[in-house]
Design brief:
By secondary structure, the chain is mainly beta.
Length: 101
Amino acid sequence: MTSDYHGKITSTVRDATEALHDDDTGVLSILRTPTFNLTGRDSCHAEYITVDGEYGQVCTGLRDRRFYVRGPHAHRTDADDSVRFHQTIESALSEAMGRIS
């Protein structure tokens, strides 16, 4: 699947199981097996690096089925839940890409 996300993400790799590498700038990787983060108590389901080199993730909190963006394109943590949380990975990514100036 390929999507431009406003020209910032140039290609999409679905169900990738390995981490992104330095030459993967612009690639979105949706992880087959989410990675649990003990410190943040959440799971990372997708990660991206924009063509400008900005890194971000789409995660779900522990015992939560909603997706949210973590990184420079995320809404503030005090934003309304209806803005911060999404039902799909794609919706969360669309929010993040929309916030890239």
